[in-house]
Amino acid sequence: MFISPMLLHKSDHPFDDDFYITELKLDGIRILWTKFNDKVCIYTRHKNEVTAMYPELTNVDLPNGTVLDGEIVVSDVNGKPDFEACMERFKSKKVPYEVQYCVFDVIQYNGEKLSSMPLISRKKVLDEIVPSNHPNITVVQWTPGNGSAYFDLVKQNGLEGIVMKKADSAYEINKRSHSWLKVINYQFEDVYITGIRKDEFGLLLSFLDGKPAGSMEFMPPVERKKLYSIYQINYENDKFRFIEPIKCRVKYRNLTKQGKLRIPSLVEWL
């Protein structure tokens, strides 16, 4: 049985509030683990069943009528989440990366719906029910408040960000809630826009030294309108218009293994 998960809103800055808890934002794939009628089913948040991709998670000793929410993570040699490796493992179970299911919430347990319980109470249930001896499942740790200090540690260690959640929040199924806030540890870079995709919107980017920086797949309509009013075409092919470079500043999650910007978005024109 699929349950559509509770989603987060964004916050530009961390804050300190004892009515919130703070967790590490894990750079992986959101997964719902369910067991009904002695059958384990594993779903992405978009309702794609991916049970066959994660056979190592089908033997978790939990009763029927249980639904967990968490993140599938693959760690690199330094113990940091590796999103690219996680995606490789997601696409093929033959890829020899060990996954960890990092559970941060329980929606239902042993047939009892827990979504209306306060988050802190659900966290206590998680600590009691998730097997401590299973090599591929763990409970996400949290701390009361301390969002600012936690985010500083995240920045120092090059991690993705934090999640701040109201300690008394219910689990709001199929809703994007202001009770849960994510703060992303964005990086910033000055780049050139060097090309415009002809069909579906997309922009080619280069670093200031001319090396390819990847592509930007989204731009707010008002900024897109400004771009269309100023660009000048140098040449084009079937897929792209290559333009006189336009300098801008972007924010991004991290550099890929190929040295490209991951999920860049416009901050300002330069």
From TrEMBL:
The keyword Ligase applies. GO terms for biological process: DNA recombination; DNA repair. Gene3D superfamilies: 3.30.1490.70, DNA ligase/mRNA capping enzyme. Pfam families: DNA_ligase_A_M. InterPro entries: ATP-dep_DNA_ligase, DNA_ligase_ATP-dep_cent, DNA_ligase_ATP-dep_CS. Residues 92-216 form the ATP-dependent DNA ligase family profile domain. Keywords: Ligase. CDD domains: Adenylation_DNA_ligase_LigD_LigC. One of its GO terms (molecular function) is ATP binding. Belongs to the ATP-dependent DNA ligase family. This is ATP-dependent DNA ligase. It comes from Metabacillus litoralis.
